[in-house]
What we know:
The chain is of the alpha+beta class. Helix content is about 30%, strand content about 30%. The protein is built from 7 helices and 16 strands. It has helices at about 20-25, 45-60, 65-80, 125-130, 150-160, 205-215, 265-275; strands at about 1-5, 10, 30-35, 40, 85-95, 110-120, 130-135, 165-170, 175-180, 185-190, 190-195, 220-225, 225, 235-240, 245-250, 255. Pyridoxal-5'-phosphate (PLP) binds next to helix 6. Pyridoxal-5'-phosphate (PLP) binds near residues 33, 204 and 242.
Amino acid sequence: MIVYCNGEFMEKSKVVISPDDRGFLFADGVYEVIRAYQGRLFKRAEHFDRLAYGLKELRIGGVDLNSLAAIAARLLTDNGLAKADATVYLQITRGSAPRSHRFPPTGTPPTCYLEAKPFSPPTNVQQTGAAAITVPDQRWARCDIKTIALLANTLAHQQAHEAGAFEAIFARNGVLQEGSHSSILFVKDNVLISPPLTNHILAGITRSVVHSVAAAESISTATRSCHEDELPEFQEVLMVGTTVDIVPITVVNGRPIGGGAPGPIARKLQSALHKLTQPSPS
Ligand code: PLP
């Protein structure tokens, strides 16, 4: 696999990242995952805007954001993915410097790494629906930044996996926030409900695409907080994200949601999203 690291394209096995890298020492960095359909990056501008936001909030400078799209495109080509479905993973850290809580000296170059690899979405659970569990939200208070500090997310996801579930939904004082690697939406009274965008959740790009698609499909939408106690009242629960598309959540904590099967709003949104992402035949 050909990857990009700090100005060079090279075999992944040749990449050298210092043990002094701030990403390694402090999880001091941000990342993005972008889907590519037939070689075209989906919602590229939105992903780069979110990356720019994260870099600004963490005060990581010195990144030439304008060059990243071309690097991603070259990685797709160099890895034979120009006509394939793939993901591009992109990570930027504050660079490498002897371990100190203080920022490195001004001018320390950030570490910039990108790779592209083939990707297939989880079509099985998209069709059958999946189970989720709720877990207490133990993350920090800046979940609006897509940082590489994902320990609470991985612990939650592993807990879900060990419970035979597909996703963990974070609940902060009982308020449902988002999944370990996805946004979570709810349906009640035929209204698609999204939790408000606060510092406790990521502004998911798929979530915003699903919103637009819902409007086009004349599905009513609302933004409000939802509590764990409301789970029995939801007709549907949807998990949405770059690497899952839309997965209906049919069971939460062992209890069925709605009829315990994927609902009509999930089906409508899945088909509309599919139309949007599949390039029309030329
Ligand atoms: N929330 C979290 C915590 C995530 O990690 C992700 C995706 O990785 C999402 C939401 C969904 O965001 P997007 O739709 O931009 O992939």
